[in-house]
Specification:
By secondary structure, the protein is α/β, with parallel strands linked by helices. The protein has a seven-stranded parallel β-sheet with strand order 3-4-2-5-6-1-7. Helix 5 links the parallel strand 3 and strand 4.
């Protein structure tokens, strides 16, 4: 072995994380019948990204002595470009400094020089971490792509087809697409030409040229350029042909870029968000392109996901979306191991396990059989069930306050669904109050909209008028409205009915300073966040909208009797950042939220509290041992001398102490539902901000 040892990067892992890393590495590189694809499905919060970093470390350790690998390329794929840029940094291991890139697959030619020139000093080979998102690298929905992509295609075609003179100009006109002017697109091309220096990457250029010759796209391009000729603008027919040509060229460019990338490990984070790319049966362009990446050479593929497959599919899920959790599971299993015999064994083992559970017989042996079949391609870690008296306490709330109107609402909802030919199950009613008010995205909502648009029947009119809906008059008058659901009533009783709307944020669990009202009493009661899980998209909107309205209503007190824009505008605002005559005005509230890094570096309230032996209050900051001190002595203010420390008796209030940004409270986010309240800062400004 040469210089790099993964042990240093694995030292900080928990035992279960290290065990997962070792198991994945064993299956990737050591076993006599290894796998090229593996799923880590650890429960949320158990550190899948840490495990992925460990797998990266073990991959580098294994490949550093593999003479068939000249350069190690790690590809990270997730659904969000910003998250991709953040997480690519987390995959960096201590023993190998890697080149980081977050780009499009089609624009990889801009970075091939950097990939080839990556630092070799740590493990003896270049190491590259490259991040992609499916929407920009695999999906071809936006057929014409970016101007820089089309510019690169032009340079490749120019080189392959020998474009000069009017042929070059007609090619530029054809590939201009959405760029505003011909001159602007030519500037993009020349800028990219200068950036690339010696031209596009030779591997990409050769692979691209072979692809367009073999597919006939080169001939199609030549014919289209000839038809465009000296035209300054494209006709509708020429435009459509140009869009199709660009789409095809982008696909060929993406495939050629994979050859240049040479992936050794591909990490798919939260893969269920783009599981369409995993299908070995799909013949879509995006799936074929993704399969080319996953199947490149001896590349390993690591799937990450915390979202478990459900053991069954509800009727309404199948009717609304055509989903089948069972079939989704087996599609993933086929991606992990495309072996019909093994898949048949898994099906039989799951059936045996289901039968054991349903019959009440012991299921331990059946579960062990399933585990042994799946362990070679996947693993999952879950939090242990804690004993009574430990950190987790399970509470079961008795939902005894189901109202008669709630039950009538469900009966009417079912009748309306039957009349419209839709579905409304008991789960809809249990999970979302006033379902008809929050039915966007459901087939029942779509069919109701269509019926209203076409002129509803008398039966539909009667059912809608008697269905459980929010009282529009009460909302307009800012009066209380019933929550319409036993679960939501219980949630409201634990939150807004306890005065949570008065909290600008949750009180810190370890405050720097002594808490005062309204934070102190909630902290003493052990306030904690509420996290709501639901399978239904109507649920978060309904909860947020109705709790927001109630919080807004409670905070307004007597100030608002009408729920309108004009009435809200008349209420004085204290936390707005306003401009008057184009100049900032009333910006003092900004100090409540603006980070103060200089103060944070100069004095740490937590260190002061520790030195004083207790948490500091405003009054105690003037006493010996509780003043703020910088590393170089006492931190003084530029105010008149009434105290020597920033925390002196009269020189500072609580807002002047730097505070670390704590966790925010359960918020009442704005809702798009007309008439529902929003938790605006001007209403929250009535709260008192306690120190700490």
């Amino acid at each position: 072995m040469t210089g790099y040892d993964a042990a240093a990067d694995l030292a900080g892992l928990k035992d279960f994380q290290r065990a997962t890393v070792e198991h994945v590495a064993q299956r990737f590189f050591v076993d006599t019948e290894p796998t090229r694809r593996f799923l880590v499905a650890d429960e949320t919060g158990l550190g899948k990204s840490v495990v992925a970093r460990g797998v990266v470390a073990k991959t580098l350790q294994h490949l550093q002595d593999d003479d068939s690998v000249d350069r190690i390329d790690i590809v990270y794929i997730c659904s969000n470009a910003d998250i991709a840029r953040q997480n690519i940094e987390r995959l960096q291991v201590a023993g190998a400094r890697a080149t980081h890139l977050s780009t499009r697959l089609t624009m990889l030619a801009r970075h091939t020089a950097a990939l080839a020139a990556a630092d070799r000093t740590h493990i003896g080979k270049p190491v590259n971490l490259v991040a992609f998102t499916p929407g920009t690298s695999f999906e071809q929905g936006w057929s014409t792509g970016l101007a820089q992509e089309r510019a690169l295609i032009y340079l490749l075609l120019e080189q392959e087809l020998g474009l000069t003179g009017w042929d070059a100009r007609s090619a530029l006109t054809t590939l201009r697409a959405t760029t505003r002017t011909f001159g602007r697109f030519r500037q993009v091309v020349e800028s990219l030409r200068a950036e690339l220096g010696n031209g596009p990457d030779a591997v990409i250029a050769e692979s691209f040229a072979a692809a367009i010759r073999g597919s006939g796209a080169a001939g199609d391009a030549t014919a289209l350029f000839a038809d465009v000729g000296r035209s300054r603008e494209l006709t509708a027919d020429l435009h459509q042909r140009s869009v199709e040509l660009i789409r095809l060229m982008r696909g060929h460019l993406a495939r050629a870029s994979i050859d240049s990338l040479e992936p050794d490990l591909v990490i798919l984070d939260e893969f269920q968000r783009f599981r369409n790319l995993l299908s070995t049966d799909a013949h879509t362009e995006s799936a074929e392109l993704a399969q080319a990446l996953f199947g490149y050479g001896a590349a390993k593929v690591l799937l990450l996901s915390a979202t478990p497959y459900k053991p069954f599919t509800l009727d309404q899920e199948a009717a609304d979306t055509g989903e089948s959790h069972h079939e989704d599971l087996f599609a993933t299993l086929r991606f992990l191991r495309d072996d019909d015999r093994w898949l048949g064994d898994v099906r039989q083992a799951l059936e045996t396990y289901r039968t054991a559970l349903a019959s009440g017989a012991g299921a331990a042996d059946a579960a062990s059989g399933v585990r042994q079949l799946l362990l070679p391609v996947m693993t999952r870690s879950e939090r242990p069930r804690l004993r009574t008296g430990e950190m987790v306490v399970e509470r079961q709330n008795d939902l005894a306050d189901v109202a008669v109107d709630d039950v009538r609402g469900y009966v009417t909802l079912r009748a309306l669904a039957d009349e419209l030919g839709g579905i409304a199950t008991l789960e809809y009613w249990k999970s979302a109050p006033y379902f008809l008010n929050f039915a966007d995205g459901y087939k029942l909502g779509d069919r109701l909209k269509a019926a209203v648009k076409d002129g509803p029947s008398a039966a539909v009119r009667e059912l809608v008028s008697s269905a459980q809906q929010m009282d529009a008059e009460a909302v307009r008058g800012f009066r209380p409205i019933d929550f319409g659901n036993a679960r939501l009533r219980r949630l409201a009783a634990d939150t807004v009915d306890q005065g949570w709307e008065k909290l600008l944020w949750l009180p810190p669990s370890m405050p720097y300073f002594a808490l005062r009202a309204p934070f102190a009493q909630h902290a003493a009661a052990g306030i904690t966040k509420r996290l709501v899980f639901s399978s239904w998209s109507a649920t978060p909107t309904a909860i947020a909208g109705l709790l927001s309205y109630e919080a807004d209503r409670k905070l307004s007190g007597e100030a608002l009797r009408e729920n309108s824009r004009a009435a809200r505008a008349a209420v004085a605002s204290r936390l707005d950042y306003r401009l008057e005559d184009g100049r900032p005005s009333a910006m003092s509230a900004l100090a409540l939220f603006w980070p103060h890094p200089v103060l944070a570096q100069a004095a740490d309230p937590l260190a002061i509290a520790r030195s004083a032996g207790e948490r500091c209050s405003r009054r105690r900051t003037s006493r010996p041992g509780c003043g703020m001190h910088s590393r170089h002595g006492e931190l003084r203010t530029n105010r008149p001398r009434t105290g020597t420390a920033l925390g002196g008796a009269t020189s500072a209030g609580p807002a002047q102490f730097p505070r670390r940004r704590g966790r925010r409270p359960m918020t009442w986010p704005p809702t798009s539902r007309a008439g529902l309240g929003t938790a605006r800062a001007r209403v929250r400004s009535r709260q008192r901000r306690a120190p700490g």
